[in-house]
Specification:
The chain has 152 residues and is mainly alpha-helical. Helix content is 70%, strand content 0%. The chain has one domain.
Length: 152
């Protein structure tokens, strides 16, 4: 049995953001399996990116990743993942295949951050750094876009 990861309180809200990202991947896959029109799914993905992913990536890159430093191999990978995910939003053709590629990339990135990167950050951070992280990113309730709940 896999033991759950004990996450420091300062990183809880970021992990909650990650949970919403995993749900996005699920919603995309659900929409694909139901044959939902691509523009409907893509509109939601674009909304989610603008309101949730882009601010989350910026927060991590400005305030969380510096704990390990720009040249740390895990940070280099995370920043490259962010750039790749962003490119899938803006450059990918509108197709079920590109949506699945995006969903898979987002899920893999979140799993990497939760299972590997955040553990390293948690282990290397000072209490002062963790308190600063906690002050910067306050828990805010997820605001869903209910205009088109294509996954239901």
């Amino acid at each position: 049995m896999i033991k759950p990861i004990k996450r420091h309180e300062a990183l809880h809200s970021l992990s909650h953001d990650h949970h919403q990202g995993l749900l996005l991947s699920w919603k995309i896959r659900k929409g694909i399996s139901m044959g939902v029109e691509i523009p409907r799914i893509k509109n939601y993905v674009n909304w989610f990116y603008l309101h949730h992913l882009a601010p989350h990536f910026e927060l991590e890159e400005k305030h969380i990743f510096p704990v390990l430093g720009d040249t740390h191999e895990l940070i280099v990978k995370a920043v490259a993942d962010h750039a790749y995910i962003e490119s899938l939003i803006s450059d990918a053709p509108d197709s079920y295949e590109s949506l699945e590629t995006f969903a898979a990339a987002l899920e893999a990135h979140i799993r990497f951050e939760e299972r590997i990167l955040f553990n390293e950050i948690q282990n290397k951070s000072t209490e002062t750094q963790l308190k600063t992280i906690e002050q910067i990113h306050h828990e805010t309730p997820f605001c869903e876009n209910n205009e088109d709940v294509f996954w239901l």
